[in-house]
Amino acid sequence: MHDVLVIGGGNAALCAALMAREAGARVLLLEASPREWRGGNSQHTRNLRCMHDEPQDVLVDAYPEEEFWQDLLKVTGGNTNEELARLVIRASSTCRPWMRSHGVRFQPALPGTLHLSRTNAFFMGGGKALVNAYYRSAARLGVDIRYDSPVDALELRDGRFVAAVVKGERIEAKSCVLAAGGFESNREWLREAWGRNERGEWPADNFLIRGTRFNQGVLIRHMMSQGADIIGDPTQAHCVAIDARAPLYDGGIVTRVDAVSLGIMVNREGLRFYDEGEDFWPKRYAIWGRLVALQPAQIGFCIVDRQAIGRFMPPVFPGVKAATLPELAARLELPQQAFMDTLNRYNAACRVGRFDHTVLDDCRTEGLVPPKSHWARPIATPPFYGYALRPGITFTYLGLKTDARARVHFGGEPSENLFVAGEMMAGNVLGEGYTAGVGMSIGTAFGRIAGHEAAQAATQEARHALA
Fold it and tell me: For labeling, which of 104, 167, 320, 345 is most exposed (least CB within 10 Å)?
């Protein structure tokens, strides 16, 4: 029998497995996917948001705890557990040497990733390289790994983990870490959560999944049925506006279109619906998926002109290009009169000062609803470009309530040997909203905590058995 069972195969699960193994535990990791798709959503990531009080290798200047906390507080609207959030923030300042010891390499922020050189450490080779480095390290240290091993249920006794069931096989361990992701790939659950809107549509039918198809939420649903304490709103998620031509699963970060703050967004009726210049893009990009989900047919259109080209990360698919705005409306199949009225009102309302996309500049609209608070310039320089965007869900926030020791709770009481990390508990920190890189910060912090705690619990279990 193994000491620690880790269920999941992404960043949080791997951090847990490595920490438990370093503590001397015999570890088995169960990954639901085949080997070639291992890593869950982590394979699509790029960076980790890091607190630091002075320049550190690939990070410039300083990003102190209080600023990180205020950024998180703003994007979540206060819907966060401050104790756990600050735990994540502090852990983000010390985790990189440990990550390097397991083969992860870092590089400076990529061109086009505005403002992140100070706040985020980028993985050399991206999330796939990080995942592969962790798997190599796990194999070298003697962690047992099984692929194609989805866990269907857990055997629990008075809040204690006893065994997991995989395709009818019962697997025992002294302790367990749950790190199997959210439920974003479960279309029926998304439909159940979002329901029908006032137009009679099922919004979830038009959602794309940016990451793995294997996050079906089986264990979350199972833990709910077992009386585990749950946290989070099932409709809240890391939800980004992505290219409508993206694949249903695993499109990853390249399907994102980062041009919204440089232009305007309209719905299929040709109308604007939110302030595109509210704040810096890394802080606000993750609100746009939900905003688009609330529009007719769950589709929006990002409109920019030649002035924007070269100022945002080039997306994988080229935009629809036109020499005139009426031609662009026709090519995007938008109502031309409403579209032109929207553009004309926006252009007339622009009060252009000194445009600078690296600061909250003084280019704004006046007398326009909704306003554009920054980076507002008339869209009048051909050629013009349009990108059709749909909601792209990265991961859902409904999950298991936990504490600073990553313990699963039942009726307010913590389990002695069952722990949780990653997307299965991210809702404790992210009640809503998102800021770039914080998902990896949460997964790394709680993966390491859960692995350490699980190893300790396994040791205690062994001592009791000998007593």
Answer: 167
